[in-house]
Specification:
- The chain has a domain of 137 residues: Four Helix Bundle (Hemerythrin (Met), subunit A).
- The longest helix has 34 residues.
- Helix 1 packs antiparallel against helix 4, helix 1 runs parallel beside helix 5 and helix 4 packs antiparallel against helix 5.
- The protein is 72% helix and 0% strand.
- The protein is elongated.
- It is mainly alpha-helical.
Length: 208
């Protein structure tokens, strides 16, 4: 019979918010990886920019300006929309921590509507660039940046949809409350990343 001392951890909680839980570390680690991917894409954008005298570069078959700037309306509207969407994201974060199911349900529905609206506006942003994806290097990199961020909008909205369904039909348990707080962090990241990308796509050509 062993006399070695052991620690009884049976009474410890299975989940906890923030740094206590591995989900927090996994979620934020993923966001670090995705941030590095966007940084590489941004570096590519500015690398291509230095190879042209005018930016966007001329596109001969266009009538009118040789280097039309992207329209501001849809991109700016999406930026404002996403900034406002931070409010319900904060609500679901706080509600999950306080075990307030009704407030979390309301916030998730509002977040879901914002996510769908952002995806719809993104669909209009692609033609607003005024260059096809295969027109030149400028068109390719801008479409790629918009597409990468769209992929995150789709993922974010789908995850919000699934958690919304769960909160309405299943138990509001600790595990999924933790998932909601992780979702809110992801939401903040998607919004913050778009503000950076919006500035690069829509304003650096105007300031150069």
């Amino acid at each position: 019979m062993s006399s070695r001392r052991v620690i009884d951890v049976s009474g410890l909680p299975h989940h906890g918010f923030d740094t206590i839980d591995p989900v927090w570390w996994g979620n934020n680690g993923l966001l670090c990886i995705e941030t590095s991917m966007f940084m590489i894409t941004i570096a590519t954008y500015f690398y291509l920019r230095q190879n042209f005298v005018t930016w966007p570069p001329p596109l001969g078959q266009l009538t009118g300006p040789l280097n039309p700037l992207p329209d501001l309306f849809f991109g700016t509207t999406n930026a404002v929309l996403l900034i406002v969407s931070v409010l319900p994201a904060v609500l679901i974060d706080v509600s999950a921590r306080r075990n307030s199911r009704g407030a979390a349900q309301f916030g998730l529905v509002i977040c879901l509507l914002f996510g769908v609206a952002a995806i719809v506006f993104r669909a209009y942003e692609f033609p607003a660039v005024k260059f096809r994806w295969d027109a030149n290097a400028y068109g390719s990199i801008v479409w790629f940046i918009l597409g990468m961020h769209l992929a995150h909008l789709l993922t974010l909205t789908l995850e919000t949809f699934l958690l919304t369904i769960w909160c309405f039909v299943r138990e509001f348990d600790m595990k999924h409350r933790l998932d909601i707080t992780a979702l809110s962090i992801y939401w903040y990241w998607v919004v913050g990343m778009w503000l950076v990308l919006y500035t690069i796509i829509y304003w650096t050509p105007r300031l150069s």
